[in-house]
Amino acid sequence: MASSLRQPRAEIREIFYTLFSKFTCQKKACYNFYIYLQGTTISLPVTICRGAKSSAEKEERLKIKIFNREICVCALLATNSICAKSSAEKEEEMKSAVFYGRHDLRIEEHEMPAVGTKDVLIQVKACGVCGTDVHIYEGDKGAAEVTPPAILGHEFSGVVKAVGSEVTSCQIGDRVCVDPNCYCGACDPCRNGAAHYCEHMIGYGTTVDGGFAEFCAVNERQVYKLGENTSFEQGAMTEPVACCLHGIDMCGIQPGSQVVVIGGGMIGLLMLQLAKLEGAAKVALLEPVPAKREVAAGLGADVCMDPIGRDVKAELKKAGFTWVNTVIECVGRPATIQQAIDIAGNKAVVMMFGLTRPDETIAVKPFEIFQKELSLKASYINPYTQKRALDLIDSGRLDVESMICEVCGLEKLEEVLSDPAVRAKGKYVISPEK
Ligand SMILES: [Zn+2]
Ligand SMILES: [Zn+2]
After folding, report:
1. What is the pLDDT of residues 234-253, one digit of tens each?
2. Nearest ligand (C-alpha, residue 128)
3. Where are the alpha helices (DSSP H) in 99-219?
């Protein structure tokens, strides 16, 4: 079967053309196709690179990955045939922040996303700036698979402005947020309860265009309706909360536990609250920035400590942390991960939640892990937790707003991404309307 696909024969090409005729106008995109061919269903993760356009004949170069073989089809396709929009719609543009590569973000007019039959067009009202966006902006390899030019932003909410013909779960006017990680449902990980390791994952705001724009088209499967009590800013926080829920689920916190959270950024402040909701008796937060410690105290941290130049372990003990059961590291630096291992008590779980750079290493003393029977854990994205996150936010039992320092327009995004001093103030939310 695979060999018959090595060369795209006429009929296969015919199928592709039919598919592409329903296709979007995005400059590049990664899609999953399921094609019924010779009695077999074949899943085709397809990356389409439409970068090189020869002017006169509007030649489109389609790069098709089939079973990890790359097949380049240079086909003469009229632009109209791969573009589902009418000429009138084509005039429409939207303001967006387009990432062109390391330290290169441009605010520009971008063609409107096309709405596929199962897609929902969302007018973005709020989109959080995440550490992952910073990693991408800095060009860190491995943070996320991004092929510029791309519209980043994966923590967003908004209003449904249009729906595809096959959409059944959403209506125009619905207030919604998005789970940006789209799974194929058919690969081994998807069929074994680990969809976040999907072999064909599509990420809105990473592998395909996301929410740092006035509009974003999203498959209805990824769309969640906001609760009545949830604002757009709160709705945009659903994704980071969902990530935290996946992490906290792995921490094994029991009622009465002693928990230390390292780092008082958005994630640390969410983890602090979630640890309390899990029933922790005492939660300490380590954070050098006074303003963040203040927010943490307001959110119920029992101890807020500046860890710089202090014997943290001794002071925690003095403050009643006699047996630290869980340490949640939310900074992503080797030094703070080592500190987490040091602070952890016997049989503790050390949750390494903060993202280090992919090539960074830490020195670990295996004897210390042995002696304390430590469990070192990590948590990757947000499988199956988006709905819980949404309900939790809507219940009012989780404060996702105290850590938002500013809601600003797209123009400020580059400053936020490039300046750590700006980011130190707290969580930024972009409102493309501003
Ligand atoms: Zn994020
Ligand atoms: Zn999959």
Report:
1. 999 999 999 999 999 999 99
2. 1
3. 131-137, 188-191
